[in-house]
């Protein structure tokens, strides 16, 4: 019999991440708030799951053959996951990333052996957008596949088949709500679909940063963005293939300042060093928890995604000069 913590190969280290009760958020919401510790994946983010499912799907379809190349446009974490999975399976990786992303992500990708192509940040309608650039590179590269994380539904399948069942089992089948932000939409849609298959009464909420258009879409039926956010990897202006049919029951819009406050508290009070998307997710979980309490749910349980490690943002979120330049609050311990 295989011991619970024994894995037959390194790719089996992806998934089966711990779930932790978050004390501060639970007290703030008046219910139980749980964080899925996705930073415990080998690539230190939730995107490892999508990377593995996308690569395995390409292999099954016969599109990715031995010695082939994986090309992707990403804000960083999916590229890191693809590079690690690619290394384990003998593939090369070419990653196209906006030059506005954190220095740590760029350095990590280079350290992992990926070929990194940086492009200016641009709207999706611009042909120079990192997604379009990566598609062209894949078309021009012999033996290459385009991962296409935004519209490749192997992405959300990863969460239907792994994240959702894990949450259901870890919470003994008693979960009232789930929320997270959307980048590709794979996590919110996949976890939502997977959990709804267990219990239709679970409330699935989108937590959207400012600068994204999905809050207005789910609230009012119109893709309309307002404000801006410095959060990396989340925020979407269109309905991707992964978001099509996502079972979104309600939605919250969270500011960077509110997200950063939870980043600060989770580090100082609970010893978790996280990125801003995790802080925004936790703020959304608190909002959802309060809503469920107000609706009369008895001792509701809400889960969210702790998407990646804060060590990936030492030059930004945890840097006084960067925060001041963005007119964002500086953590107390960085002021001296």
UniProtKB/TrEMBL annotation:
An annotated Gene Ontology molecular function: transferase activity, transferring alkyl or aryl (other than methyl) groups
Alphabetized InterPro entries for the sequence: Cys_Synth/Cystath_Beta-Synth, P-phosphate_BS, TrpB-like_PALP, TrpB-like_PALP_sf
PROSITE patterns: CYS_SYNTHASE
Gene3D superfamilies documented for this protein: 3.40.50.1100
Cofactor(s) annotated in UniProt: pyridoxal 5'-phosphate
Keyword Oxidoreductase (UniProt): no
Pfam families: PALP (PF00291)
Pathway field: Amino-acid biosynthesis
Keyword Transferase: yes
Tryptophan synthase beta chain-like PALP domain: residues covered: 12-293
Transmembrane segments: none
Keywords: Amino-acid biosynthesis, Pyridoxal phosphate, Transferase, Transit peptide
Protein name per the record: Cysteine synthase
Native organism: Caenibius tardaugens NBRC 16725
